[in-house]
Amino acid sequence: MATQLLPIWSPRPVRVCGETPLPVLALSPPPAPLWPSPPSPSPTRICSATNNPPLPGRKEGSRPAPPCQRRRNPPPPPLRPPPAAGQDIPPLPSESRNPQVLATNMETYTTDDALTNMGFGRSQALVLVYAGMGWVAEAMEVMLLSFLGPFVREQWNISPQSESMLSSVVFAGMLIGACAWGFVSDKYGRRTGLLFSTMFTSGMGFLSALSPNYLCLVALRFLVGVGVGGSHVFISWFLEFVPAQNRGTWMVILSLFWTLGTILEASLAWVVLPALNWRWLLALTALPCVLMLPFFGLTPESPRYLCVQNRMADATAVLERMASANQSDLPPGVLIYNRETKTDHDNLASESECLLPIREKECKVDDAVSSESGSLAALRMLLSRNLLKSTLLLWFVFYANSFAYYGIVLLTSQLSDANRSCASGVIFGLHQKDTNIYKDTFITSLAEIPGLLLSACLVDWFGRKASMWSMMFACCAFLGPLVFHQNELLTTTLLFGARACAMGSFTVLCLYAPEVYPTYVRSTGSGIATAIGRVGGVVCPLVAVALLGSCHQMEALVVFEVVLCLAAVACMFFPVETKGRGME
After folding, report:
1. Structural domain contains residue 366
2. Number of C-alpha atoms within 13 angstroms, CB side, residue 169?
3. Where is the Major facilitator superfamily (MFS) profile domain positioned along the sequence (predicted)?
């Protein structure tokens, strides 16, 4: 068969009607075409039914070859002009949706950019009030331990060790609850964790007021601790709505609600216990959790959590409602999870569905992050090379800070009682007519206000790490003289200063932990750290109540001093300073 040369402009292999495909030879340099090139996209027609020799097996003069087939080259996709400002972009056809081109040409912004652009307004104020009510509820449940133990010991004639157990089981429940609610909030959403922990706390709190005996009271207070253990979710939830540059200040303002709860509980005990009994105090302490439930429908889900879960439309809707409430606008462009996704073209090419029209403002999430689920996966991430040092140091500092803070709360009611008991050689119960315990507790609760003001001044100026270790050393200095017996006025003054410093360092620590961890393990990481801190709460009654009740004041205070000094040194070795840094 003779080789037929075709012009080089032919874009496809050409079949001559009724014959096998003819080879196309690329000539260099190409000769001048024998006939003019047809304009595109006119059909290409090659017909040689009469000039070509017959096919093998076909006689001369037989039926001619079938008519030639026509081929039309597909037209190129049309080019569209850029949209005017504020005009919606219709969806691109599938053949022209190139994620590399889109990612390069489109503007992008992160959640931090959106929050910074809208500022702190009405939407964040709603989140602040609701999270603050959660902290009021936890503070009241913790402060209740200062009053409950002595009155139960007097009514049921239990030992100091049994009295300390009543406080320890609450912190043991908080340990379990911190881990459980942290996992729930990372797996099913921040709002889900908030709702069920609040319902659980209120229900168990009311039931504990009806306890018929000591063992039943211990069991129900343990379950109350499980519910209260979810309070750290309020912190993570609130901080995920706050712009990075003001996060420290707003964390201090949130901590004011804790102080409000301690003052409210001391005032409530001062009024209720002399007139009624401890059962009424338990029931009224559970009331704030009940009051939170009707307003749960007003709370938004965290946009950071929604973005991590690849719920892109929901994250955008939350940010748009927040911007509308704050009377501001979102930045132009496409919402992305972090800045790395803006230039990760290889990842974008395999996940083009994450880049949809601008008005949908959907997020891009890394597959390796979104695929991580479950408590074991989160724990592996917390113990990875990048987070291992921060995680281990946070666990110890949370333990020490909880041990010191809750110990000081218990020391307020135990020191004066222990001094009188050890001086007379008789350990006796607390009488309802003795109002010194209410006065001392109320005064030391007020100490948290200057502690918060001090942390507010230091946290964004001095840094997170330096603020923590400096206030821990100051707390050691205030507790030092209490190794020996002091008069009542000096004891109250020293406890006032120690509690102010303990509250200040605890506030900065609760701010630092969520800032260290990325969003996809933030609540779990903070929850486990808080749970380790609850171990300190479990142990501190054995020191602050049992040792003091056995007239071992020096040994008890030395333990507090050593733990605080070690925690202050540990703060110096934190690998990351998060002041002014955006949350990942």
Report:
1. no
2. 17
3. 127-579
Closest C-alpha among 251, 272, 300, 243 to residue 116: 243
547: CB partners within 8 A, 6+ apart: 553, 555, 556, 559
Burial of 21 (0-12, 13-18, 19+ CB in 10 A): exposed
In a domain, 97, yes or no: no
Give 108's strand partners.
334
18-42 pLDDT tens trace: 444 444 444 445 555 444 445 544 4
Name residues whose C-beta falls within 8 Å of residue 419's C-beta, 6 or more positions apart in sequence: 485, 491, 553
Q: Using one digit for the tens of pLDDT, what is the confidence trace for 301-322? A: 888 888 888 887 888 888 888 8
3-state class (DSSP) for residue 97: coil
Between vectors from CA 521 to CA 520 and to CA 527, what angle results, nearest 5°?
140
CA dihedral 524, 334, 367, 241 (to 10 degrees): 0
Q: What is the pTM of this model?
A: 0.63
What number of CA atoms fall less than 13 Å from residue 148's CA on the CB side?
28
The residue-averaged pLDDT of 82-87 equals 50
What is the number of domains present in the chain? 1
Q: Which string of DSSP letters, residue by residue, matches 176-206?
A: HHHHHHHHHHHHH-HHHHHHHHHHHHHHHHH
Full domain range(s) for residue 505 = 113-303+375-421+429-572
Kindly report the CA angle at 228 between 437 and 134, in degrees rounded to 5?
90
Find the Cα–Cα–Cα–Cα dihedral 486, 490, 494, 496, rounded to 10°: 130
Distance of CA 38 to the CA centre of its chain: 65
Rounded CA gap, 518 and 113, in Å?
Answer: 17
Q: What residue spans of 209-344 are helical by DSSP H?
A: 214-228, 232-239, 247-275, 278-285, 287-292, 303-308, 312-325, 340-343
CA–CA dist 513, 525 (Å, integer): 8
- Residue 367 domain-assigned? no
Q: Is the link from the previous residue into 99 a cis peptide, with omega within 30 of 0?
A: no
256 found inside a domain: yes
Q: How many CB atoms lie within 10 A of CB 250?
A: 19
| Dist. CA 418–CA 428, nearest whole Å | 9
pLDDT at 365: 36
b/e sequence 189-203, b meaning 16+ C-beta within 10 Å: bbbebbbbbbbbbbb
